């Protein structure tokens, strides 16, 4: 909520942050503009998700252009909850990454296995598959991508 964002902003302003470390905080889309305008210099906001196309009848979704329009330069894509709860596939995440990069956003691309996949001993297979899916979407824009 707004109060929590204000508390975080005050804590960040008082914190002895290393200027060589990039700090990016992902907030719910409703608070993106507030966060982007409130965070102290050197700290950026990120959207927690976006859609894979610029516009259309996609009620409730936000586009990379909307994210940029409120002054935010980052988006997190492929988070485990998006994959498991919302059923986002590598293909959907790849499309989101490609569109976000094409729109000029920087992307934090989440990769990783579920507990069941880890217990099955296929962690490397899953991580390699997810990374391999990103390669064509990223192309030569790896400087704008962080793998998490």
Automatic annotation (TrEMBL):
This is Triosephosphate isomerase. It is an enzyme of class 5 (isomerase). Keywords: Gluconeogenesis, Glycolysis, Isomerase. Pathway: Carbohydrate biosynthesis; gluconeogenesis; Carbohydrate degradation; glycolysis; D-glyceraldehyde 3-phosphate from glycerone phosphate: step 1/1. The keyword Isomerase applies. InterPro entries: Aldolase_TIM, TIM_sf, Triosephosphate_isomerase. It catalyses: D-glyceraldehyde 3-phosphate = dihydroxyacetone phosphate. Pfam families: TIM (PF00121). Homodimer. The lineage of its organism: Eukaryota, Metazoa, Ecdysozoa, Arthropoda, Hexapoda. Its EC number is 5.3.1.1. Belongs to the triosephosphate isomerase family. GO terms for molecular function: triose-phosphate isomerase activity. The keyword Isomerase applies. One of its GO terms (biological process) is glycolytic process. GO terms for cellular component: cytosol.
């Amino acid at each position: 909520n707004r109060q929590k964002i204000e508390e975080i902003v005050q804590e960040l302003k008082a914190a002895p942050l290393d200027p060589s470390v990039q700090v990016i905080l992902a907030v719910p889309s409703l608070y993106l503009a507030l966060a982007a305008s409130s965070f102290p210099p050197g700290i950026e906001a990120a959207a927690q998700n976006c859609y894979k196309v610029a516009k259309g009848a996609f009620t409730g979704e936000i586009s990379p252009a909307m994210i940029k329009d409120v002054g935010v330069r980052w988006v997190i894509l492929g988070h485990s909850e998006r994959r498991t709860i919302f059923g986002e596939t590598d293909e959907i995440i790849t499309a989101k990454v490609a569109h976000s990069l094409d729109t000029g956003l920087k992307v934090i691309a989440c990769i990783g296995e579920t507990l069941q996949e880890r217990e099955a001993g296929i962690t490397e297979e899953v991580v390699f598959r997810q990374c391999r899916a990103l390669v064509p979407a990223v192309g030569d824009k790896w400087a704008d991508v962080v793998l998490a």
